[in-house]
Write a structure and sequence with these properties.
heterodimer, A: alpha+beta, eight-stranded mixed β-sheet, 20 strands, B: about 300 residues, alpha/beta, globular, UbiH/COQ6_monooxygenase (chain A), mitochondrion (chain A), ubiquinone biosynthesis (chain A), 4-hydroxy-3-all-trans-polyprenylbenzoate oxygenase activity (chain A), FAD/NAD-bd_sf (chain A)
């Protein structure tokens, strides 16, 4: 409050001084010097009327809001004046989630590490008020029927492997958390049209700030611009940051389906020549399907009737493409028992038959898949987080978890910077965030891409190798524990932590 | 007692200076005015910054001055590059956050401020002696302090003013500051004492400015073989982080010498820490190793 009044007082003084200058010059004979001074004074006056924010988050999606929440909750950063630029109407408060609606097909798997971050900022309690589904088992197998792997949370002495939550629930929880924090933030329900990072002339009082122009012609200044605007990031484009990556020749179909029994397991089956089928529980008797396939097949399957689609789904999940793997339960005389010190609980699990899908419960949505990674996450006054920095294949449910990791890491780095009085837009500070997140993100992306390629080829020796990999993961308990810990976000790097 | 004696001796020397040059009174008034309106980034300066005051003509009659002309020339030559994070001052920029972390924790404890607050030094007055381009002064101002930067090289002050635009910097040596009658809560002399003509006298001047109980922070390089190898041979000739000849090994002080000099100037050193560089990560960190770079935090003895 005091701060705004001081600013207003200064504005008035500044305006008065500028007015005084123009009056003085107007009294003399009209000369080019006088009019230039008047023009500069006018420009200065109008420029100094533009709002100045500390942080401008472009993109108010899940990751952008996670950053805003985190900044609002930490004592070192909660004084920051944050602007959120997003034209999505879901951000206007007053839109509540109707619990009787069927689950939205857009869901995310929240790893335990992300859940811990949410709990730190106090947003998890809002998630728990809405539909969410914990799962403690996961079964992965392929069409050849040569092997399968079952993971259980008890292998790593945990209760759950993850939690599947609708994106709109995550988003609304973060929004509620931000609104409750009482920090200074302002929503601009507009799009970003352009950005000026060059320092203005020395006479301008807003020398080295970034100037953002919005779609309605208004502008604002910010010390730091955060690009959280997704894989087609406008901020990345305007900042001139290039990326590396390639398109996967695959689309993903997502939808919600209903089945007879409750489901507390995540199912993933690799199909011939690339497609992957995943079934994730979302709560009650609903589950979410993420089915990646060739673009022509995806268009085909999107347009077929519901009944046909459900039949295709059951084929993909269970009775089509190949046999079911035989249950491997060696009991006490396990071949690998001399290697392992302590066998994981799930090592002796039998292959479980997946649930039969009865009905389609939502529309089918299709998305193209690609891999993209920004060559650098930060330049002066600009930083990228979430999908703007990296886009991955959805096969392991890691994409948004990497994004949340980025958001919380960036807020920690900003807090450290503010503690020592740094300018939050300084490249050296933002590079620390990049150094923290880039290796972790790149490793995960490499692994996911490796899996994607490994399961794309239907070739005899590869199939055997893959089967061996399944067997290995199923029976080598230390390896299994490592895989689970890494996928849960507990370790930043596989194998070495 | 000693500080008052020095002040009494020096005041007659400063008085004719401030009476003879007209702008001095205006400067004092301007200075106080600027002190009140100086909040980093909250408000633009209402008017363009007044020009730096010229030093009193009688500066030359002082028998002792801490200024070392050769050192001043060295720094004047590279003034424009102060804020170039990749330029000759890169090591200072890289080391800055670590140094600020130490300063922050010492001063929060000294003044009893909450370290988790984003502006813990609100309402405190600091003086940064030998501020250069303002690399230390700006972050301290962002932490809430009213900072005055003092530097003997005028170009440095201009660079600092251009970069900060939000606070006042005065030129000249410490003696000029005396008649402004603004006792700082804390004095910072970071990487300065190895460039002055007479360190003992410099410390006495610093001490004269603070009140008893005031804090002083001095950082410099140890006069050790390791420091010769790293700060001079490696930094100046091998890695070329600094221009050759920036530091003169014989003007470095050992921690014991610094403590002794400060004690003679009635400042007792409370804490000392060293900075070590990790070449693998490229980061500086605080440590107990005062073999090369070190920083000392002291308080003025109560009289």
């Amino acid at each position: 409050m005091i701060r705004t009044s001081t600013r207003q007082v200064v504005f008035h003084r500044h305006a008065w001084k500028s007015a005084k200058r123009t009056l003085c010059s107007g009294a003399e004979a009209k000369s080019p010097g006088a009019s230039i001074e008047q023009g500069t004074a006018d420009k200065q006056r109008s420029e100094s009327n533009l709002p100045v924010h500390d942080v401008a988050i472009v993109g108010g999606g899940m990751v952008g809001m996670a950053l805003a929440c985190s900044l609002a909750k930490m004592p070192l950063t909660n004084h920051l004046n944050v602007a959120i630029i997003d034209s999505n109407p879901a951000l206007q408060s007053g839109q509540s989630i109707k619990k009787e609606d069927p689950p939205d097909p857009r869901v995310s798997t929240v790893t335990p590490a992300t859940k811990a971050l949410f709990k730190d900022v106090g947003a998890w309690k809002y998630v728990e008020e809405n539909r969410h589904a914990y799962f403690d088992k996961m079964q992965v197998w392929d069409y050849t029927g040569l092997g399968y792997t079952r993971y259980h949370a008890k292998d790593v002495n945990k209760e759950v492997l993850g939690c599947v939550v609708e994106n709109k629930v995550l988003h609304k929880s973060l929004l509620s958390c931000l609104q409750d924090s009482g920090s200074q933030h302002k929503l601009y329900p507009l799009r970003l049209s352009s950005m000026n990072l060059e320092p203005a002339s020395a006479s301008s009082s807003r020398g080295s700030l970034a100037k953002l122009e919005l779609s309605d012609g208004n502008s604002l200044y910010a010390k730091l611009v955060v690009g959280a605007d997704g894989s087609k990031s406008r901020v990345k484009e305007l900042a001139g940051i290039s990326s590396t990556g390639w398109k996967y020749s695959q689309n993903a179909i997502i939808c919600t389906v209903e089945h007879m029994e409750e489901n507390r397991c995540a199912w993933q089956r690799f199909l011939p020549n690339g497609p992957k089928f995943a079934l994730l529980p979302v709560g009650d008797k609903f589950s979410n399907i993420v089915w990646t396939m060739d673009p022509e097949e995806s268009l085909n399957r999107k347009s077929m009737s519901d009944v046909d689609f459900v039949r295709e789904v059951n084929r993909a999940l269970d009775n089509g493409y190949g046999p079911r793997p035989k249950s491997q339960s060696f009991g006490g005389a396990s071949v690998f028992s001399w290697l392992t010190t302590k066998t994981a609980v799930s090592a002796n699990d039998c292959f479980e038959i997946p649930p039969k899908i009865t009905k389609l419960a939502s529309e089918r949505m299709v998305f193209p898949l690609s891999l993209k990674h920004a060559n650098s996450y930060a330049t002066k006054r600009v930083v990228l987080i979430g999908d703007a920095a990296h886009t991955v294949h959805p096969l392991a449910g890691q994409g948004v978890n990497m994004g949340f990791g980025d958001a919380f890491s960036l807020s920690n780095v900003l807090a450290e910077g503010i503690a020592v009085g740094s300018d939050i837009g300084e490249v050296s500070l933002l590079r620390r965030y990049e150094l923290d997140r880039k290796p972790v993100n790149l490793t995960m992306m490499a692994i996911l891409d490796g899996f994607q390629k490994a399961y794309s080829a239907d070739f005899g020796p590869f199939n055997v190798l893959r089967a061996a990999a399944f067997q290995g993961a199923q029976h080598l308990s230390p390896l299994k524990r490592n895989i689970i810990s890494y996928a849960s976000g507990e370790h930043r790097f596989p194998l070495f932590s | 007692m000693m500080s008052k004696h020095i002040l009494a001796r020096l005041r007659p020397l400063t008085r004719p200076a401030c009476r003879s040059s007209q702008p001095a009174n205006y400067t004092t008034h301007e200075f106080h005015h600027k002190l009140q309106s100086r909040r980093y980034s909250d408000s633009p300066l209402p008017s363009p910054a007044a020009p730096a005051p010229t030093p009193p003509p009688s500066a030359k009659i002082y028998s002792k001055s801490s200024l070392n002309e050769a050192e001043l020339k060295k720094f004047a030559a590279i003034s424009e590059t102060w804020w170039d994070a990749e330029g000759p001052f890169k090591p200072l920029h890289v080391m800055n956050p670590t140094r600020l972390a130490f300063i922050r924790s010492m001063l929060c404890r000294h003044f009893g401020k909450d370290p988790s607050c984003s502006r813990p030094f609100e309402g405190l007055k600091f003086v940064d002696v030998g501020c250069g381009g303002g690399i230390l002064s700006e972050p301290l101002a962002r932490m809430g302090a009213h900072v005055t930067g003092v530097d003997a090289v005028e170009k440095n002050i201009k660079i600092a003013q251009l970069h900060a635009k939000n606070w006042w910097k005065s030129r000249g040596n410490l003696m000029l500051y005396l008649h402004l009658r603004c006792t700082p809560d804390c004095l910072h002399a970071i990487q300065v004492i190895e460039h002055v003509a007479d360190p003992a006298d410099f410390c006495k001047s610093l001490s004269a400015l603070t009140e008893s109980g005031g804090a002083t922070l001095i950082s410099t390089i140890n006069r050790s073989m390791r420091a010769y190898a790293t700060a001079i041979v490696v930094a100046e000739y091998v890695l070329r982080w600094l221009p050759a000849g920036t530091h003169d090994w014989s003007s470095f002080l050992t921690p014991e010498e610094l403590v002794l000099i400060l004690q003679r100037a009635s400042i007792s050193v409370q804490e000392m820490a060293g900075f070590v560089y990790n070449p693998l990560t490229g980061r500086w960190s605080l440590s107990d190793d005062i073999g090369v770079n070190f920083i000392a935090y002291g308080t003025k003895n109560h009289e």
